[in-house]
Design goal:
The protein has one domain. The longest helix has 31 residues. By secondary structure, the chain is mostly helical. It has a two-stranded antiparallel sheet with strand order 1-2.
Length: 377
């Protein structure tokens, strides 16, 4: 690939980041809507999205694996396991997750000790959560995701080597199916049952890279491009609609109570595939779903998603228990308060932490020995 093609590819990838913020926002909104529905805080009685929070979590898992793998795929195979790269990688992950995670756990623990039974958290469980061994309630997702951070560089190492899309697809399918037989789907604070979900995110990053490289190296007619874009746009719409149609309450209304026998909430591979499909079709398409995910509404929720995820339970309990108003008004208060508090947390806690970390990168000079310290301010 020529230098010009590399530059074109880099520009396209950089421009494609914005809809990913929106997809993260969509994911956290699914969680908030689900937990609000669990407490009967509904804008409309007919729209009950209880259970959709799990689908939002799968989106988080796949998106996280996609974004981090994508960064490693920009490196040569021999660079992935050098100390400066891994130090940079883990330092950013720790600063991104742990400070707010510690504050949230400590806050819920204090509230529980004070008699507010929002999350039944003990000091022992808090320590287990910080050591990535176990977690209570919605905190279970943090240990699961962080555990995959240790596996991801190895996954990226193999993906950098694979250039054949057929081997990529076949190997991914065989691994995911075989792994699920070994570790059946269950909601736990351990990565093993969710490993195929994360692997799908990493595979999607590789697939996206291969598609873009082929797009740059090959010339397509305008008709072929339009046809391909229409397909991506249609699939993106179909996937978004599927996320809502597969909510347990909506499924039961459509097909009756017998549908419960399928136990849709434990179809991990299905929602991993849907999440991967949404990311890929949104990035490659140019239709309404992409524009929606690039909107200020969804990108805002994407930016504050981590704060919203960790803090929303307090606000939900406060509004549900102490504001004796109609459910629709509780719903509006809950989302308004969550947006406001999450923005404050992001603006004055998350963002400053992301800006003060010191990155130590090993930069190869002409003689292979040049190194420098890079400060991100």
């Amino acid at each position: 690939m020529t230098v010009t093609q590399h530059e074109h590819l880099a520009k396209e990838r950089a421009g494609n980041l914005k809809p990913l913020h929106g997809i993260r926002g969509f994911a956290v909104l699914l969680v908030l809507l689900s937990h609000a529905a669990n407490d009967k805080v509904l804008l409309f009685d007919a729209i009950n999205l209880s259970g959709a929070g799990h689908y939002g979590v799968f989106l988080f898992f796949v998106l996280s694996a996609f974004l981090l793998t994508r960064q490693f795929l920009e490196l040569d195979q021999g660079q992935i396991f050098i100390v400066p790269v891994l130090r940079h990688y883990f330092l950013r992950r720790i600063l991104r997750i742990y400070p707010l995670f510690i504050v949230a756990l400590g806050g819920y623990l204090l509230l529980y000790k004070a008699g507010f039974l929002i999350v039944p958290l003990s000091l022992e469980m808090m320590l287990k959560s910080l050591l990535l061994l176990d977690a209570e309630e919605f905190f279970w997702t943090i240990p699961v995701e962080f555990q995959y951070y240790f596996i991801l560089p190895l996954m990226a190492f193999f993906l950098v080597k694979i250039s054949n899309s057929y081997y990529l697809l076949l190997g991914g399918v065989l691994f995911c199916l075989g792994w699920q037989l070994l570790f059946p789907p269950q909601y736990t604070a351990h990565v093993l049952p969710f490993l195929p979900t994360f692997v799908l995110g990493s595979l999607t990053a590789k697939a996206y890279k291969l598609i873009h490289e082929r797009k740059v190296s090959q010339q397509e007619t305008r008709t072929d491009t339009d046809r391909r874009q229409n397909l991506y746009n249609f699939l993106a719409w179909a996937i978004v609609v599927s996320f809502f149609l597969l909510v347990p309450n909506i499924l039961e209304k459509l097909f009756g109570s017998w549908i419960k026998q399928i136990d849709i909430q434990h179809q991990f591979l299905l929602f991993g595939l849907l999440s991967s499909g949404l990311i890929l079709t949104t990035l490659l398409g140019n239709g309404r779903i992409r524009h929606l995910m690039e909107s200020s509404f969804f990108t805002f929720w994407g930016k504050v998603s981590f704060s919203a995820y960790l803090g929303h339970k307090v606000l939900l309990a406060l509004i549900h228990d102490f504001f004796q108003v109609s459910p629709p008004l509780q719903f509006i208060l809950f989302f308004s308060a969550t947006a406001f508090c999450s923005y404050l947390s992001y603006r004055y806690f998350e963002k400053p932490l992301a800006g003060i970390h010191v990155l130590w990168k090993g930069i190869e000079g002409d003689n292979g020995r040049n190194k420098q310290v890079v400060l991100n301010g």
